[in-house]
Amino acid sequence: MVAIIINVVLGNAISEAVDAAESAAPAVAPSPSPADAADEQTVDTEQPAEPADAEAPAAAGGLLPLGQPAEVGDYTITVTGLNLDADEAIAQADEFNPPAEGQYVIADLSVVYNGTEEGNPWMDLSYIFTGTDAEEYDDGTCMAIEENSVVNVPTLATGDGADYEVCMDVPADAIEGGTFSVGPFLSFDASERATWAIN
Questions:
Q1: Which of 98, 94, 99 is nearest to 146 (CA)?
Q2: For 154, phi and psi rounded to 5 degrees?
Q3: How confident is the model at residue 119 (pLDDT cuts 50, 70, 90)?
Q4: Residue ranges under compositional bias (Low complexity) (predicted)?
Q5: Under DSSP, is residue 21 helix (H, G, I), strand (E, B) or coil?
């Protein structure tokens, strides 16, 4: 009889302890279903960044409109004009200029030297007209002297600018639809060039 009473008392004590422990434990939230989780995701409503200023210097490698500046080596370069039929201008620049084998093309350029030493656009840069015949005609093809030749540009210090001309001798039927490029001197990597559409 005593054993029965002891078992009843112990059973009640254990039951009360279990109930107390369950009421004291923190409630655990159920894990969200995949659909609920998707509802809780935040959506980025931030507006896309504004496009870069059209007048900011572009990196070398893309096709640019005339007047768009580009960074090439230590220079910021702008092609301000292209004379695609410059035979008469070359003849007027110097009476001893020879006629073109094809047709003279003159590029008008404006540069700023950004380097930390000294800049010479004639020695530091190459000027290339790529014709529709897929051939390249650099300023070495021009045996004439321009009125405002690059060879007359003085040495530039940091921040100095200069305006000048370069000419190329290009077959007349390869001019329309061609491009004009400026790159580092003696570089054969086209990705280092800045290239402008001629029209």
A1: 94
A2: -70, 165
A3: very high
A4: 25-36, 48-65
A5: helix
